[in-house]
Amino acid sequence: MDVPLWLALLVVGWLGIKLVRPPWWLVILLLLGGYLIADSFLGPAVGSLIN
Fold first, then answer.
1. How much is the pLDDT for 41?
2. Contact of 35 with 7, CB cutoff 8 Å
3. DSSP labels for the chain?
4. The predicted structure's pLDDT at residue 47
5. What is the pLDDT of residue 10?
6. Which of 7, 17, 49, 51 is 20 to 30 A removed from 37 (C-alpha atoms)?
7. Backbone angles phi, psi at 37, to 5 degrees
8. What b-and-e string marks burial along 15-41, b requiring 16 or more CB atoms within 10 Å of the CB?
9. How many Cα neighbours within 13 Å face the side chain of 19?
10. Do residues 34 and 9 make contact, with C-beta atoms less than 8 angstroms apart?
11. Neighbours of 12 (CB within 10 A)
């Protein structure tokens, strides 16, 4: 099952906001940081650590 990265980030952000109620700046920082890491040379390394 292929899920676009933007959709996965949107769902994770929405669930995090609804369940944990963190500050908005923290949510934006985590989502932007995750997106930038996924598109960088660190993406494969982080992916192998997660899997």
1. 82
2. no
3. ----HHHHHHHHHHHHHHHH---HHHHHHHHHHHHHHHTSTTHHHHHHHH-
4. 78
5. 87
6. 17
7. -70, -40
8. eeeeeeeeeeeebeeebeebeeeeeee
9. 6
10. yes
11. 14
Residues 27/17, Cβ–Cβ less than 8 Å: yes
Q: Tokens representing 23?
A: 């500050």
Predicted structure pTM score: 0.51
For residues 42 and 34, what is the distance between their CA atoms, to the nearest angstrom? 11
Structure tokens at 43: 């993406």
Token duo for residue 46: 């982080």
